[in-house]
Amino acid sequence: MTLPLPDSLRDRVGLGWRAPLAADILANLDRIDAVEVIADDYFDAPARDRQALRWLGRQVPLALHGVSLGLASTAPADVVRLDHMARLVADVAPWLWSEHLAFVRGGGVEIGHLAAPPRTEATIEGAARNLARARAIVGSAPLVENISTIIEPPGSQMSEAAWLQGVLAATENGLLLDLHNLYANGCNFDFDPREVIAGLPLERVGYIHLAGGKWVQATRFPGRRLLDDHRHATPLPVFDLLEEVARRAPQPLVVILERDGDYPAFDELLAELDAARAALARGRAARLAETHVIAPI
Fold first, then answer.
1. Quick check: is 1 in a domain?
2. Contact call for residues 180 and 238 (beta carbons, < 8 A)
3. How distant, in Å, are the alpha carbons of 29, 180, 219 from that of 279?
4. Predicted confidence (pLDDT) per residue in 4-26, tens digit
5. Residue 94 maps to which CATH number?
């Protein structure tokens, strides 16, 4: 008989909390190991909503995910939003919190989009300053997420992989590795995501995002681009990347499936969670085989 692993030693698979999915999530907590909540939705929420969030966190490990701080910028992060995050973290006591390596405003203009910054030494230094500010105000460091883009950020002087490695080298933050974002950028700009994974400090991956997207026809440049819209099923190559991370990463992994619209029957989302578990299991089996190879006599 094989005993189950302690929670601290096992991989987990969960789902992003969305209002249309709430009832199904609560009815299937036996198949959902963690839940991710969009933090900004609760910055100005009434007390009863925050109380409900605290209750949810007692049922299942809960992560808060920010979308508006704009930490990857040479401009200072907005203190008001950081204060909102600090109060929410203190109130809810989540398992962890995260934000995107993106900018969302400039010159006083809200652009309404998670934009990729120019990949330069200046934005690495700006991100490091903002992450230090976030840690000081919130009281803990966020995990930082790689983002997708359909254009190369103007003024960039390095690849996505080199820029991401630079941010991690300049900070002590963990990484929220979004595998669909990485896959989409690989498709859009002709690089191999596996090579990026091989070059990352995977021991600093705090958790992983999976999602799906759609191909769109570009209007200002030739060809198509893969748009990360979170409204489609996770494609098979992304599960292959998850298997690769599980083969290489030494620590237990937490995987969160994101879905933001065009919701299918909930059984289909549960099937994606099962596919993620299968990919993790394949990667772990491969890692075990590689680390237990007996040298020939």
1. no
2. yes
3. 21, 15, 36
4. 444 656 999 999 999 999 999 99
5. 3.20.20.150
| 3-state helix vs strand vs coil in the chain, percent to 5 | 45, 20, 35
Cα 141 to Cα 125: distance, rounded to the nearest angstrom: 16
Query: Full-prediction pTM beyond 0.85?
Result: yes
Q: What is the tally of structural domains in the chain?
A: 1
What would the pLDDT profile of 26-71 be if each residue is shown by its tens digit? 999 999 999 999 999 999 999 999 999 999 999 999 999 999 999 9
Helix axes 160-170, 121-138, angle to 10 degrees: 40
The answer to whether position 282 is within a domain reads: yes
**Inter-residue contact 239 to 257 (CB < 8 Å):** no
CA 50 to chain centre: 23
Q: Kindly report the backbone phi and psi dihedral angles of residue 70, in degrees, each rounded to the nearest multiple of 5, phi listed first.
A: 65, 55
| Position 157 in a domain | yes
Identify whether 44 is part of a domain.
Answer: yes
Distances (CA, A) of 91 to 82, 117, 161: 14, 32, 36
C-alpha separations of 231 from 211, 228, 288 in Å: 8, 8, 35
pLDDT above 70 coverage of the chain, percent: 93
Domain that includes residue 277, residue range: 8-291
Quick one: which of 95, 84, 86 has its CA closest to 59? 95
